[in-house]
Amino acid sequence: MTTTDEKYWAEYDGLQHAKHQLLRSYLGGWFPILSSWQGRVLYLDCHAGRGRHTTGHEGSPILALRLLRDHRHSSKVLSETEVNFYFFEISQANYQRLTEEIDNLGTLPSNILVFPLQTDYENHLRKEFSDLRAKGQQLAPCFAFIDPYGFSISIDFLNEILSFPSTELLVNFMYRYVDMAIRHENQADNMDALFNCEDWRELIHISDATERSNATVSLFSNQLNAQYVTHMYMLGENRALKYALIHATNHRRGRELIKEAMWTVIPDGTFTASERDSPDQPVLLVPEPNLEPLKATVWDQFAGSSVESSQMHDWLIDELYLPKHLRHILREYRNRGIIEASGYEGRFAFKKNPIFAFPANRPD
Ligand SMILES: C[S@@+](CC[C@H](N)C(=O)[O-])C[C@H]1O[C@@H](n2cnc3c(N)ncnc32)[C@H](O)[C@@H]1O
Q1: How far is residue 346 from each of residues 68, 183, 354, measured CA to CA in Å?
Q2: For helices 309-316 and 323-335, angle between their N-to-C axes, nearest 10 degrees
Q3: Cβ distance 348 to 333 under 8 Å?
Q4: Which of 76, 98, 138, 269 is the most buried (most CB within 10 A)?
Q5: What is the three-class DSSP state of 306?
């Protein structure tokens, strides 16, 4: 057992908490969507861990299982859908504890199937994928969570998961270790596998720490074959980036869900969590989101034009703001007589897809 391993399970810091909150919030929305898929759905936790920290806090496999079991739509989801949870854990000791934690949950509903595997996730899944392809079959809709201690992940493998039609990835990108590894030639092969290109060699020449972390996360994100990539930033004690949680999907609904989940976990819209935040600290005041940046981009985009509400909502998918934020500012502008809404009958409602006319210049 390594020191990293022992230390990791002995504590439960603000970042571990934020990561689990994000997973909880995302899965709370993802599980009900499953009921529309019918058949089998896969949940792949590629670095499952022990299932519980020494502090008593749940690890990712147990929180995911309990979330589905106790979800208010659980019986609806499970009436048509079989959810297969694959938990990969390479360490014998951690695997042993994980299986005990799973056993402690007692009997689960029959359509929740749990497969803990003491093996390397990549070897196992690559073989499964090549068997599927040989038979001309597709992977069932799947959510994969990649949460290693370090940076030993291959983007080529992540893209293999994304190449199947209904897949979503949540990757813990261990920036702090990557930033050290790019300086060591003996890590070159790992860096090549991580980025699947040699552009990482340029990163070391960026002297500004924030610029370098942004460039590193962007390089990795751009190498993912996903239409939508969404980030949550996790800062260490020194307020520097420690890791980034990266969600990747080719599905609009997945992007919408992760945006909602990130706003739930980080209500100020910075999508940045800090190690200093105590996991057990009660939230006394939920901060109001700052809608000024959204207003600015709305005017950049739509000044002087007339646009349907649905088109504005389509445009919003690439922004981090949510439909409720857009509606809030449209309502405000309409009430102040700054924009006009037309093309609907009766009372104004967004669901009637009104057309909004923006003046050429943003008023003060
Ligand atoms: C950061 S911990 C996982 C934490 C867990 N996802 C959670 O949130 O509770 C990483 C775990 O991955 C396991 N691991 C490392 N390499 C692995 C591999 N190649 N295949 C499967 N498990 C691995 C480690 O033994 C360790 O328990």
Answers
A1: 42, 65, 11
A2: 140
A3: no
A4: 98
A5: strand
Q: Where in the chain is the domain with CATH 1.10.10?
A: 292-357
Give pLDDT, residue 337: 96
Ligand 1 pocket check for 116: Cβ under 6 Å: no
Q: Which residue has the tokens 């603000």?
A: 14
> What tokens appear for 11 in the block?
């504590």
For the domain 292-357, what is the CATH code?
1.10.10
Say which CATH architecture domain 3-274 belongs to.
Answer: 3-Layer(aba) Sandwich (3.40)
d(CA 215, CA 203) in angstroms, rounded, equals 7
Identify residue 102 by its one-letter amino acid code.
Answer: I
90 lines ligand 1 (CB under 6 A): yes
**Which atom number of ligand 1 is nearest to the Cα of residue 16?**
8
Contact 52, 291 (CB under 8 A): no
Q: Rounded to two decimals, what is the model's pTM?
A: 0.95
Please write the tens of the pLDDT for every residue from 211-232: 999 999 999 999 999 999 999 9
pLDDT tens profile 301-347: 999 999 999 999 999 999 999 999 999 999 999 999 999 999 999 99
The strand pair at 39-45 and 142-146 is best described as parallel
Q: Are 28 and 115 in contact (CB under 8 A)?
A: no
| 246-301 pLDDT tens trace | 999 999 999 999 999 999 999 988 999 988 877 766 666 677 889 999 999 999 99
Distance 147 CA to ligand 1 centre (A): 6
Query: 3-class DSSP state for residue 258?
Result: helix
Any bridge partners for residue 82, and if so which?
40
Residue type, 230: T
Sort strands 112-117 and 142-146 into parallel, antiparallel or unpaired. unpaired
Q: What sign does the dihedral 9-15-20-23 (CA atoms) show?
A: negative
Ligand 1 centroid to 125 CA: how many Å? 15
293: amino acid identity, one letter: P
In the chain, which segments carry CATH 3.40.50?
3-274
